[in-house]
Amino acid sequence: MVNKGFWKGKKVFLTGHTGFKGSWISIWLSSLGAEITGFSLWPVTKPSLFEICQVENLIYKSVIGDIRDYHALSEAMQISEPEIVIHMAAQPLVRESYKSPVDTYMTNVMGTVNVFEAVRQCQSVKCVLNVTTDKCYDNKEWVWGYRETEPLGGYDPYSSSKACSELVTSAYRDSFFNNENRKVAVASARAGNVIGGGDWAADRLVPDSIRALLTDEIVQIRNPHSIRPWQHVLEPLSGYLMLLEKLFEEGSDYAEAWNFGPEETDAKSVECIVQMLCTKWSDSNKGYEISVGDHPHEATYLKLDCSKSKKHLGWQPKWCLEKTIDQIITFSKASPDKETLLDLCLSQIEEHQVT
């Protein structure tokens, strides 16, 4: 469980604070009393959780900037003098990476380099967490979950860029942050497919499905038999916070890669997710159909082995897939009024912690 007392007054520098996961963790950390400086591009979706919940007003400072701009990033970090750095800013979509591979690599690889270079120049930093993805593994379509020691890889530019980001993390940890001159605890987090209320991104299964259900249209699915480690956004976020507490207090013992995913029984197919969404949404929705046509390659089977996080962090996924779908539907059917949705975010965070 997240230690509420630990975060009060902690100075946190968060890249990607305007995104889906970034907004959720900003809301959570602000409720715990952390002093957050965010650095990110303006939200790419309309609507966005960042704008609806007015996250900018919840945190200490919001800097709109591009992590590819090293000087702006470094200046913002120097001014904020953080103790903890959480790197979430990224180009996060597989299909978009096929359309814009250069931008994907520039953001996900050189953006990571820029973050670590900025940390090198900022003496206040004690620990860094780079949030990557489960897709950083060299996917062999195995039936068992990938462990943190498995080889990195990536068929598509997104997955490959995140594997590169992991290698950058390891190289900077060994080269610059684990010697007599400078000790900074550096770790990476690899989460499964994160879903939850407030995600309006394009080309993602749950947001696309919710949009169709809200407008009484047929849900379109591309790869019905693909299996993913689906989990509510609060599951990995709780893991990130617990890991950061360990990094801050115990340092190099936890400066490694960590997996955060659901129980094996919740690694379900795309079709199973959509069936559950449609069944729980209403009796009168129009259901779903398989989208015809050519689609870029995406992995068919992907699961994570989270034994290490469970044993050494005491972390456990708390919400089963059915509970996760229920929470998403509750959020999606709620009033779009900002106070309502912010209160709903806070109530779901509280419910998750006491579960």
Report what the structure shows.
It is a single chain. This protein is of the alpha/beta class and 355 residues long. It has 13 helices and 13 strands. It has helices at residues 4-7, 20-31, 49-52, 70-80, 94-99, 101-120, 157-176, 205-214, 234-250, 270-281, 307-313, 321-333, 338-354; strands at residues 11-15, 35-40, 61-64, 84-87, 127-131, 185-191, 194-195, 219-221, 227-229, 231-232, 257-260, 267-269, 288-290. The strands form 4 sheets. It has a 7-stranded parallel sheet with strand order 3-2-1-4-5-6-11, sandwiched between helices. It has a two-stranded parallel sheet with strand order 7-10. Helix 7 (157-176) links the parallel strand 5 (127-131) and strand 6. The longest helix is centred in the N-terminal third of the chain and has 20 residues, at 101-120. The protein starts with a helix and ends with a helix. The mean pLDDT is 94.
How would you sum up this structure in a few lines?
By secondary structure, this protein is α/β, with parallel strands linked by helices. The protein contains 13 helices and 13 strands.
Task: Give the topology, please.
Elements lengths: L3 H4 L3 E5 L4 H12 L3 E6 L8 H4 L8 E4 L5 H11 L3 E4 L6 H6 L1 H20 L6 E5 L25 H20 L8 E7 L2 E2 L9 H10 L4 E3 L5 E3 L1 E2 L1 H17 L6 E4 L6 E3 H12 L6 E3 L16 H7 L7 H13 L4 H17 L1
Helix pairs in contact: 2-13, 4-6, 6-7, 8-10, 10-12
